[in-house]
Specification:
The chain is α/β, with parallel strands linked by helices. It has a single domain, classed as Alpha/Beta hydrolase fold, catalytic domain (Rossmann fold), CATH 3.40.50. Helix content is 45%, strand content 12%. The chain has 12 helices and 6 strands. Strands 2-1-3-4-5-6 form a 6-stranded parallel beta sheet, sandwiched between helices. Helix 3 links the parallel strand 3 and strand 4. The longest helix has 17 residues. The protein starts with a strand and ends in a 5-residue tail after the last helix.
């Protein structure tokens, strides 16, 4: 192939098709481009087991070993960026470099803390499990996948509402309409809410050994740009580069694919041989 492999990883609620405007341009630039559906999203299975960035990373590791078969550049939007980071730390031999656009993890907003008391951990686990039992996720999903609340929800992630087209609506609506969607959502709430501290971004970032590019929409309302500074502070010195994307929101790759690809390709060409 003409260039190294790029693996595109979607964010929460999306699917591999969310890279519909990016994959072609990246392939034309000489890269071998892949995109996957994380478990619970897109056309993948929707199990009721706990789903978190560790499990999605294991899924990605299998894909890298069995399909890609060479160290790859991982490009993740939103939670896909966290999956990319998790994979780079737990399976560094599979990852050449990574891009997070952006890198979401609520724990980045918390101060460094000592280990919680056992009773606090038990209370936290009980509250997460109680929430998934108490909240009626099936009727909630039925409401949210209706056109107007769905468009409203997507609008919170997009700074440019004109980019929200019928294709994007269908891409998000179809998986949410499957009968197994509610149990998968419950599994995500449990998985992400109960994951150990070692699986959070503050613990993963200091262990990173590959170059990391942060692409952050300046108008991101879901993951505040202030979190980008937390990422820079926790990543090893010299490994992390931050690029601001003006007038873009939480999904910069889809809002302005030309600008996104241009910045990404410029950074890739600056990397050591192999990218």
């Amino acid at each position: 192939m003409g260039g190294p492999a790029l693996v595109l990883i979607h964010g929460f609620g999306a699917a591999s098709g969310h890279w519909r405007q990016n994959a072609g341009g990246l392939a034309e630039a000489g890269y071998c481009v892949y995109a996957i559906d994380l478990l619970g999203f897109g056309q993948s299975d929707q199990p009721g087991i706990p789903l978190d960035n560790r499990l999605w990373s294991r899924q990605l590791q299998h894909f890298l070993r069995e399909v890609v078969q060479v160290p790859a550049v991982l490009v993740g939007n939103s939670i896909g960026g966290l999956v990319a980071l998790t994979t780079a730390v737990f399976a560094p031999e599979l990852v050449h470099s990574l891009v997070a656009a952006p890198l979401p993890d609520p724990t980045l907003l918390l101060p460094l803390r000592r280990r919680r008391a056992p009773w606090r951990r038990r209370l936290h686990r009980w509250l997460v499990k109680f929430f998934t039992w108490l909240v009626p996720l099936r009727p909630l999903l039925a409401l949210l996948r209706q056109p107007w609340p769905l468009r409203l929800g997507i609008g919170s992630a997009y700074h440019r509402p004109q980019r929200i087209d019928a294709e994007l609506i269908r891409l998000i609506q179809r998986p949410a309409s499957r009968p197994t969607a509610a149990r998968a959502l419950a599994g995500m709430v449990r998985g992400m809410g109960l994951r150990p501290a070692q699986a959070t971004a503050p613990a993963l970032l200091p262990r990173l050994s590959q170059p990391l590019l942060l692409l952050w929409g300046r108008q991101d309302r879901l993951v505040p740009p202030a979190i980008a500074q937390q990422v820079l502070q926790r990543a090893p010195a010299g490994l992390c580069q931050l690029e601001w994307l003006e007038e873009l929101g939480h999904c910069p790759h889809d809002e302005d694919p030309e600008q996104f690809n241009r910045v990404l390709l410029r950074w890739l060409r600056q990397q050591p041989t192999g990218a």
